[in-house]
Amino acid sequence: MPLKKLEVPTTSITEVKKSPMDVFQQAREAGTGVYVFNREKVAGVMLTQEQYETLLQELAEKRAILENQSNAKVVLEKEQNEALPASSVSMSPYLEELFNQIRKEIVSGSSISAKNLDEKLVTLGFITKKSGFGGVNEMLHELNETGKMLYQYRGKPAGKSILAEVIGEPDNQSQLFDKLIIKKIHLVEN
Question: Which segments does the entry list as coiled coil (predicted)?
Answer without folding.
Answer: 49-79
